[in-house]
Amino acid sequence: MEKKPVLIVLSFFAVYVFWGSTYLWNKIAVTELSPFSLGAMRFTTASFIIFAIAIARGKSLRISRKQLLNSILAGFLFLAYANGMFVWALKYVDSGFGSLLASLQPLVLLLMMRFAQRKSLKLKSIIGVLLGLLGMYLLVSQKELQLQEDSWIGIIMIMTCIVSWSAGSLFVAKADTPTNFFIATGYQMLSAGIILAIASISFGESWTLPDEWLLPTQISMVCLILFGSIAAFTGFNYLLKVVSTEKVATSSYVNPIIALLLGWYFLNEVITIQSIIAAAIMLTGVYFINSRKEK
After folding, report:
1. 57, 84, 130, 293: least CB-packed within 10 angstroms?
2. Average pLDDT rounded to a whole number, residues 60-78
């Protein structure tokens, strides 16, 4: 796939900023909606919009059987499990703490690349990950972060989500998926939406119509669909094909910073000096990973 600098920059902006804001939107929406039904409505709606845009632009939605199966697996690893279970875990940990745990993903990814793909770790990548972990520790170790009752359940589930997301990243980078990354996103989201709908019904979750939701929930769902799903995930799929997988994973370091800033602005959450120092260290880690030269 051809590398286009403008698309790469816009895609990184989407996965850094838009995904960072999804912690706020999910936190607002999940206070009123059940987690699996929230994901099912979000991803199914996003897939329909993507397919409608693709058809309007004269793109064919035809894909091979292998591409369909790969899209279903990717949709499960990324969205149905990693994202769906993460939102469910927010019942046990607050969104800020969850976003901080998610910053472990680059380390998990690099370890999986080392042991599953026998890929050597470059010095800059190791330094970047260590700086990211140091920044995450400074954030998590603050006394201001209060864990909720049974928070260990949420922590364990988020860790499994990180493994699922990392596995999906390695899989999609090499798998035979639809050549049009926009259409590939649509199939992955449709698959995830169906899986989450089945899970929601199986767990007996309640469903309500959008006109019954509070205004903040309606706004959050629109933002999750347009920015968190369509824009960010399309950019994510594109980046997995044109840059190294560990560079794409740096979003896990930047997203918590965005989440903290939005929580401070919209929810009056406190940002401490320690948080600012930690954010600076994490961004430095991102620089080291992104500055590693590729052969």
Report:
1. 293
2. 96
